[in-house]
Amino acid sequence: MRPLVPLIAASVLLSGCGGAVGDFGAGVGAAATAPLDDLNLRRQFIPTVLLQAEANPYDLRNLNQCSTIGAEIARLNEALGPDMDEPPAPDGSTLGERAGDAASKAALDAIRDASTDFIPGRGWIRRLSGAEQHSRHVQAAIQAGRMRRAFLKGIGMNRNCAPPAAPAWFRPRGASRR
Is the pLDDT of residue 118 over 70? Predict the structure, then answer.
């Protein structure tokens, strides 16, 4: 545990560069309690829209209008974040702030790694506690949500819908069906 002291001190100093000390403090807490995930004492929440996508990714019930397709895509975007076809939102940060954020992220990753490295047989503990199975379920739900979003955007293109019911680059032919 002794090697963590200089790492934490350096990361706290670096976090001041980014200006988001509160975010970094919350990140330190999450990184330090990462072993709770390994012991399956804390679980990542899976949004309902992702569970629904996992159960039936090609469901088209009640999606007969462009507005309803767009609303379903918006729900998926809320759970997954923006799609790859969406341009990144400008955050107005300076180069120094982005560098500070990158340094903070690297420090948090190091703290998370150090806090989980002390668990002997971590892989076996994750399997026996059910944490590995839950982690696979989370990843499967995310993948199903991404697949459903892509499917719905394809349906939106086929029905000549305007974005967000279709990819951001798509321009409807003639008059769009809203």
Answer: no
